[in-house]
Design a protein that fits this description.
Layout lengths: L3 H19 L11 H4 L12 E2 L6 E2 L1 E7 L2 H10 L4 E3 L12 E7 L5 H9 L8 E2 L4
Antiparallel strand pairs: 1-2, 3-5, 3-6, 4-5
């Protein structure tokens, strides 16, 4: 006879997937549109997610805050493969208690779609450039 753990193992993946999908937020319904939440000009980026003069193109790092919790990090990583999480930092954006600083980068395929999808999440208030010191 199988143990309880052996009988539940096939369901574990479904439980994790359900929890992750269940934590996916709805699109923003407030007064700000997705592009209003993005604090830089998307049209300044080329097809490769780079900006600047032809002889000095560079990518743009951006930051935003998400609620703490593994489900949020998993959801963000599924949208933005460049996302890195910094729970010990507020960033310039000023993440507060119960939030995690998240930094992504525009030098990736579909960067504009990724940014719009992130901005459509109701728990992301704004996305702004990172100014490294």
């Amino acid at each position: 006879m199988a143990t309880l753990d052996e009988r539940l193992a096939p369901c574990l993946g479904l439980i994790v997937l359900t929890a992750t999908v269940g934590c996916q937020p709805a699109a923003t319904t407030g007064s700000l549109s997705a592009t209003d939440k993005i604090a830089f000009d998307l049209s300044a980026l080329d097809d490769n997610g780079l900006y600047g003069p032809a002889d000095g193109k560079r990518s743009l790092d951006y930051e935003f805050c998400i609620p703490t919790g593994e489900a949020y990090a998993v959801a963000i990583s599924a949208i933005d493969p460049s996302a890195q999480f910094f729970p010990q930092s507020q960033g310039r954006i000023g993440c507060g208690d119960g939030e995690v600083l998240t930094i992504g980068n525009t030098h990736q395929a579909n960067h504009q779609d990724i940014l719009i999808e992130l901005a459509n999440l109701n728990y992301i208030d704004r996305i702004q450039p990172v100014y490294w010191e």
